[in-house]
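> Could you send the Class II fructose-1,6-bisphosphate aldolase prediction when you get a chance?

Sure thing. Input:
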Amino acid sequence: MALVSMNEFLPKAKANKFAVGQFNMNNLEFAQAIVDAAIELNSPFIYGVSEGALKYMGIEFTVAIAEAAAKKSGLPIALHLDHGSSFEVAMKCIRAGFSSVMFDGSHYSFEENIRLTKEVVKAARAMGVSVEGELGTIGGVEDDISVDEEHANLAKPEEAIRFYEETGVDCLAIAVGTAHGMYAGEPNIHFDIIEQVSKAIPVPVVLHGGSGVPDEMILKSIAAGVGKINVNTENQVACTDAIREALNKDGKIYDPRKYLTPARKAMVDVVKSKIQLFGSSNQA
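Output:
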């Protein structure tokens, strides 16, 4: 099966009150773990690729790995640019074979964010590619971008609704109290904002910073209208912990397969637990 846009499964997720996971692809082992978990549970999913990961892996390798996963699995898989910083980056990814892009204009003024997002939507739609927009500022650390709690701004529901109406994005990430990275304490998610926005627009709300959010909060977010949830840090931690454990157990290991195999298995377990929590099992 070829890579698909998020419109192959997000409308169903919104209608049937489940969420599809975006799991970031950071290397081959991440890609394998994610698709293996999804095959086992017959779930659609999204490979998220940040600009930092693109620089690390190379755009050609990234697309080839995702296409191989789609062909092997037969599942509906979207290859999605995560937090694209410009029109040019989004177009580069579309030309290379990405089936979905996010334009993150949250650091621009509200009006400029709308203007730039509309440009991306117009170009992407002509290519059959889905687009995610973002409103408000999500705190935490992702790649080289760091936003402290003080400067994280919640999305205003009325602005989020207008943003959708003017841009026509296929899903909308709004800042509701989650953060990128792991939480020191418990997140304070504003479910009322999710619900108000979700009831007013026909596309799903996206929850960024899904790692470390308590299960009951995830379920409440989905019930309120979240249809896409991003997870990366939990996989990174599971991968690194498994590698560290393998190397600590045997200091003579030098074959990468000896420590990357348990790392991959650890990530399969994380992704399976998220797919089951999000309710996307058997929704492919």
